[in-house]
Every structure is written in C-alpha cells, then in structure tokens.
Amino acid sequence: MTDRIYIRPIGLVPGPQSEHGNAIRLAGGMVYASRFAVILRRDGAVAERWLAAPDTIADVMGALPDSVADDAERQWANLTLAHPPFELGSRTIRLDQPQIMGILNVTPDSFSDAGAFMDDPDAQREQASSMIEAGAAIIDVGGESTRPGAKAVWEGDEIKRVVPAIEMCAGMGAAVSVDTRKAAVMEAALAAGATLINDVSGLTHDPRSAEVVAGAQCAVVLMHAPGTGQDLHEGGDYASVVFDVFDELRARRDAALEAGVAGERIMLDPGIGFGKSLSDNLALMNALPLFHALGHPVLLGASRKRMIGALSNEAGADHRLGGSVALALKGMDAGVQLHRVHDVAETVQARNVWRGLRDAALTDFGDLPG
Q1: What pTM does this model have?
Q2: Could you tell me whether strands 91-93 and 99-105 are parallel, antiparallel, or unpaired per DSSP bridges?
Q3: Closest Cα to residue 162, out of 133, 139, 135?
Q4: In this predicted structure, what is the pLDDT of residue 298?
Q5: What would be the CATH architecture of the domain defined by 86-358?
Q6: Which residues are catalytic?
C-alpha cells in the first residue's frame, strides 16, 4: 500500500487582511492563500480529502497517517518558503514577484516564428534587444524545436545555432538561458555565457547532463515531459495528471539533488503542452499553486501553445497573443515566479498592471472595520 499526500492551495486572496490575517504568503510572492485541500492518495486513488486554513492546518496534519506526516510538514513549510534571488552571472533575478523570460528560437522549424531568426544575426540582435528593453529578465535561446513531430538535431548543429546567439545576448548584458537537453550543448552554452540550463527532459535525456549542471553549479529548470526517448510527447497516459506530474517532478528533483545539483538552483516546470491533452493542460493550469509545495520556484511555459488554438477556433500560433496573456495572468495569480513567453512587451505590461493591483490590495482597508 502506497500513501502520498498533497497540500493544494485552493483559496487565493489579494491580501491577508481580507481574511483577517488568516492567510499565508504563497512561496514568498505577491499571492496569498487562505484555504487548502489536503489530499491523501492511496495506491493511485484519492482516499481522503480535508479542507484547512492556516489556523486549522495543524489539526488536519495531526490526524494524517504516519506514513505521510513528515512529507505533509515539508510541503506546508515549502508553501510558505520565500525563495532567494537567482544569481545568474552578474544579473540578480528576484523571485518575490513574477519575472518574464523572452524566447529566442534559432531553429528553422519553430512552431511560433517559422524560423524567422535562423541564420540572421541582425534579426536575432533586434529581437533580443527589443525583449531586453521591454523588460525581459532572461533571454532563453533554443536551437532545437521540441514541438510534436519535430526532427532531432545533431548536437554539433545545435551548438552552431545557439552559441553565437548566446554570446550576442550575453554581450548585451542579458541573463541568458539555453533551452537544450544535450550535455555537449549545455557545456558549449555555459562557456558562451549562458547561466541557466532549461532542460525540457528534466535532465533525463542525456546521461551526462546532470553531471554537467552539478559541475557548473549553474541554475537549471527541470521540466516534465512524459517521453523518455527522442519524442518527449510520447507516453502521456495519466491516472491523474496533476498528481502524476507533481510526483514525477519530485522524482526528477530528487535525482538532480542526488547528482549534486544545488537545491537552491533548481526551478520546476509542469510542461504545459508536452504529452498532455487539452483537459490535462487545463487541469494543470488550475492546479499551479500546488507545485509550490515542492519547495522550488515554478516556471510556466504556456505562450502560444496549442491549447490556446483549441479554445479559440483553431487560431494559428501567430494569433494567440490574447490567450497567451490570459494564461500568464492565470500563472501570476497562482504565484508562478517565471513566465517563458514570445510576446515580452505585452506580457510585461500585463504583469505591471497585475502588480499594481496587488500592491493596491495590500493597502486597501476601506471595506474592513476599523
């Protein structure tokens, strides 16, 4: 018999005063949580579910089976954990507010830009410069498409694509990440000035990747994707997608820690769109606050994804701005720290308005008794 516990924030509020102080600051950010579902899963099925608030959570946890008591305590501590900034080279990325990661694809078959920046250094520079000026905290450079059906790229070709773009972005003073699952590309990217590895396979594709990240002591994003071979989208069969993705991310995090990767340098990504149906993606979006219970910052990559087209008359990738911003705001409401997007200026503007509303909510006592 296998028991697992999950503490999922289900009541989110703009400020603690609306709950007379009976709320926690979720993951040290600008979102507060006042109600929680404590869910016991036994042998893959939900066995019991309790509702709790900060002033009753101790009673609920005191009644849990011994087999999950320690994990419940860790998850509760993680939900209230304030993450220190990511130090990416000379850049400091604060994690107490949403940050924007701009996407720079240097591939001929990108689903979002159809290779517009491939083999065109001037276009790459213009795109990177515009994203930095618009407020991107990080530029994410990718040299291999991971859309369904995309062909694998030889690591030598991938290096030739990403290294000049990384050197260019780093030379502009940007914090740079590399979107790759290959150890050799990681090494070349770090030497070129990247300071963050964004691995869509969660360090499972290349047996050397965890060693490279641990040796460099660089920051890393571990993303969930069900496929273990070339096709990351294979094998997306879930008993319960939210819990299964949570468990798999925990396993990949634990494997990274065992390999020597520093815990404070790990970020987690539930992998929206990777081997997941529309209903799976919607379930994960609605459950994003749960992933803070793993104790690491969360990255959301939902920009221009297929789910937006599915919900908007099959709009093409270049007509999904509204849906992309809507999903980013949903992530901000869930306390997500980093948003990987194509449309930086529009998302930064939405973030700034969102933050203004949050700041105002902390000082709005007009409807409460004096």
Answers
A1: 0.94
A2: unpaired
A3: 139
A4: 98
A5: Alpha-Beta Barrel (3.20)
A6: 305, 340
